[in-house]
């Protein structure tokens, strides 16, 4: 085998390795882009309702007004007497049904779980 044949053979092998390396890098880059796009889409759909939920699985729907629920409503929605003799409302639906909404801080029946934005006025 001559030196020229040897060099041609080596350059063919190097060319094959370069093509293989380029293909692997291109596959990794495209795969990473696909994963990034899927992650962004998934994150956007997961944050359709940001913020916490109350114990009854609902939260204030400020865009449309009222409340929006994700889970089944709690079984106990009517007001009940708390152990300290104060009025207790399980959620804003119960407070509205009793005619107490909006409930202000200091009023009978006011509780932190009714005041989601912390401004001192529950079930607004």
SSE topology string: HEEEEHEE
Unreliable stretches: none
DSSP strand content: 5-15%
Distance between the termini: 91 Å
Number of helices: 2
Class by SSE composition? alpha+beta
Overall number of strands: 6
Mean pLDDT: 77
Shape: rod-shaped
How would you describe this protein?
This protein has 124 residues and is α+β, with helices and mostly antiparallel strands. The chain is 40% helix and 11% strand. The chain contains 2 helices and 6 strands; from the N terminus they run H-E-E-E-E-H-E-E. Strands 1-2 form a two-stranded antiparallel sheet. A two-stranded antiparallel ribbon has the order 3-4. Strand 1 and strand 2 form a beta hairpin. The radius of gyration is 32 Å and the shape is rod-shaped. The N and C termini lie far apart (91 Å). The mean pLDDT is 77.
Short description:
With 124 residues, the chain is an alpha+beta fold. It has helices at 3-46, 92-97; strands spanning 58-60, 67-69, 80-81, 87-88, 103-104, 121-122. The mean pLDDT is 77.
Essential attributes:
single chain; 124 residues; alpha+beta; two-stranded antiparallel sheet; rod-shaped
Layout: helices, strands, pairs:
Blueprint: H1 3-46, E1 58-60, E2 67-69, E3 80-81, E4 87-88, H2 92-97, E5 103-104, E6 121-122
Antiparallel strand pairs: 1-2, 3-4, 5-6
